[in-house]
UniProtKB/TrEMBL annotation:
The keyword Magnesium does not apply. Keywords: ATP-binding, Nucleotide-binding. It comes from Microvirga vignae. Residues 13-244, 261-506 form the ABC transporter domain. It comes from the Bacteria. Transmembrane segments: none annotated. SMART domains: AAA. This is ABC transporter. CDD domains: ABC_Carb_Monos_I (cd03216), ABC_Carb_Monos_II (cd03215). The lineage of its organism: Bacteria, Pseudomonadati, Pseudomonadota, Alphaproteobacteria, Hyphomicrobiales. Signal peptide: none annotated. One of its GO terms (molecular function) is ATP binding. Belongs to the ABC transporter superfamily.
């Protein structure tokens, strides 16, 4: 399984012995990587494996401490992204860098050199859209576009610069299954035309669909270069994390009891200029089950989480009922005292205070239920609790009680979810539980959610990751433009049906979204 595979021809781009040191930390340690002309090559590894450092070196964002980059066999120095683009290297980042108030054409023009005017951009945009099937309206404002359409802007912006190597970082994280398949066809076409692609993703099945070679990093080193089609996704994950990644277990059958959460005709205006209004949301979560809420980013998930957690209050108390109490008009601390727990999407700054220590961060949610205890006693208890969370949820920390900002994203996510689960709440609502988290951490988090539900809690999981929802959810609904489809058993959904709901097609056709 670990036997290396070589490119079929001479490499187009080659990294030889790339190392990057930050003080005592060796982020990249003698990495070799070769990409052939027209190859779609995957770069895989868990969080902190060194992927981001490596592509930043390749794109000219940071300078390597040692090693060499060869472009068509000749050594090159890439001192900035401008130099990278001039060489023929384009990059589409995981987080879009677009101006919401500007049009599609204007967003593309600002990234190009001064010789491009809007008329030239419109002309080339139309040509590329036809060639690659990347439909875009040059005069639409970006804030009106879906996540898939925004990603097309980033890709077209790169293609206008005629890249010979395209780097894609988690490109399907905000796409529907249909949009993802459309992207794969575009990448296949680019590859057939000779454009090399370096593909970074945690979604191993799509890597197996697209790539013939994958380089796997662990702790800053290359541990294998494989043909991902030749082994299973689980075997690939084991190479990434260094041990076997098992399936999610459920020792107890799905046996839901009484309702813990009822959402009843919840309507809420958008929070800001580009927010999404919630429109007549209705669903129930019962003890012993996981309810999944699927959807493409920006369709009301954040607004729904805020309404359920009490960060935003409704006009009527009975719009949200927790453990039998109508609480749509009461805040988050009161809801916590009803044995509800909440994990927001943004872990650093929302779920955790960056400059506070982990022990102090446990007080964010636990203090609400410990109001009778003195601050000194509470802080000492919080330190003990933080140590328990760190041990129970395998949180890797640089020191015993570090500031939250010193943890990697995956480890901080394990901590904030562990902080809520360890309370054994009657209700847990979690938004994007494994966003940007590697296979090992994702499995630990998903297993903890399943275990909590099987112990009798109601769990609501809001996620853009369909693999995740199909793995853990008992019931699922889809949110689109602030409206929620009917809740149905997970076995009643297909990926195609979910994708149609995500696009709003099924609702427009009368809700024919289930098998």
């Amino acid at each position: 399984m670990k036997e290396d595979v070589s490119p079929s021809g001479p490499p187009f781009v080659e990294l030889k012995g790339i190392s990057k040191r930050y003080g005592d930390l060796l982020a990249n340690d003698g990495i070799d990587l070769a990409i052939a002309p027209g190859e779609i090559h995957a770069l895989l590894g868990e969080n902190g494996a060194g992927k981001s450092t490596l592509v930043k070196i390749l794109y000219g964002v940071i300078e390597p401490s040692a090693g060499e980059i060869r472009w068509e066999g000749r050594p090159v120095t890439i001192g900035s992204p401008v130099e990278a683009r001039a060489l023929g290297l384009g990059m589409v980042f995981q987080h879009f860098s677009l101006f919401d108030e500007m049009t599609v054409a204007e967003n593309i023009a600002v990234a190009l050199s001064d010789e491009w005017d809007l008329a030239m951009v419109r002309s080339r945009l139309s040509e590329i859209s036809r060639t690659y099937g990347l439909a875009l309206d040059a005069d639409r404002a970006v804030w009106t576009l879906s996540a898939g359409e925004r990603q097309r802007i980033e890709i077209v912006r790169c293609l206008l610069q005629n890249p010979r190597l395209l780097i894609l970082d988690e490109p399907t994280s905000v796409l529907t299954p249909q949009e993802a398949e459309h992207l794969f066809k575009t990448l296949d076409k680019l590859s057939a035309e000779g454009c090399s692609i370096l593909y970074i993703s945690h979604k191993l099945e799509e890597v197996r669909r697209l790539c013939r070679r994958a380089t796997i990093l662990r702790a800053g080193r290359v541990v294998a270069t494989i043909d991902p089609r030749a082994i299973s996704a689980r075997e690939i994950a084991a190479l990434m994390v260094g041990n076997e990644v098992g399936e999610i277990r459920s020792d107890a059958p799905h046996a839901p009891q009484g309702e813990v959460l009822r959402v009843n005709h919840l309507n809420m205006p958008p929070a800001g200029l580009h927010g999404v209004a919630l429109k007549d949301i209705n669903f129930v979560a019962r003890a012993g089950e996981i309810v999944g809420i699927a959807g493409v980013a920006g369709n009301g998930q954040s607004e729904l989480f805020a309404a359920l957690s009490g960060e935003r209050l409704a006009d009527r108390a009975d719009t949200v009922t927790i453990a039998g109490r109508a609480c749509g008009t009461i805040g988050i601390d009161t809801r916590r005292r009803l044995s509800a727990a909440f994990v927001p999407e943004e872990r650093l700054g929302h779920a955790a205070a960056p400059t506070h220590r982990l022990s102090e961060n446990t007080l964010i949610s636990h203090a609400a239920t410990e109001v009778s205890r003195s601050g000194f006693i509470l802080l000492n208890a919080a330190k003990r609790l933080a140590r328990t969370i760190i041990k129970s949820f395998d949180v890797r920390t640089p020191e015993g009680d570090p500031q939250a900002r010193k943890l990697s994203g995956g480890n901080l996510q394990k901590f904030v979810i562990g902080r809520e689960i360890i309370r054994k709440p009657k209700l847990l609502i979690v938004d994007q539980p494994t966003w940007g988290v590697d296979a090992g951490a994702a499995r630990l988090i998903r297993q903890a959610l399943v275990d909590l539900a099987r112990e009798g809690s109601a769990v609501v999981v809001v996620s853009q990751d369909l693999d995740e929802l199909f793995e853990v959810a008992d019931q699922m609904a889809v949110i689109h433009q602030g409206s929620l489809s009917p809740l149905k058993p997970i076995r009643a959904w297909t990926r195609e049906a979910v994708g149609l709901e995500m696009l709003g097609v099924a609702q427009a056709q009368g809700g024919a979204h289930a098998v």
